[in-house]
Amino acid sequence: xxxxxxxxxxxxxxxxxxxxxxxxxxxxxKSENCYVVPHVKSHGSKSFMYNxxxxxxxxxxxxxxxxxxxxxxxKCKKYLFNTMQDKEKNEFVM
Length: 94
What we know:
Elements: H1 2-6, H2 20-23, H3 48-58, H4 61-64, H5 69-93
């Protein structure tokens, strides 16, 4: 869904995310392709707005900038699988 929101393909009621680049004018490393993560309390951490922005911001730039949704899905699955595999290796090595 975040891919659709980023590329303007989602319904308008979901496109309420604010980009970091729209908030301030100075560029930072991640400002061009990232969303503002809202400040929330305990129950707000379960919302789509919070989790969607957080997960999207943690993806590498090469995944966010893919041209097609199928390519995005494939790269995202590979990235998440490799990340999970690395975490599991580190847990059991110690």
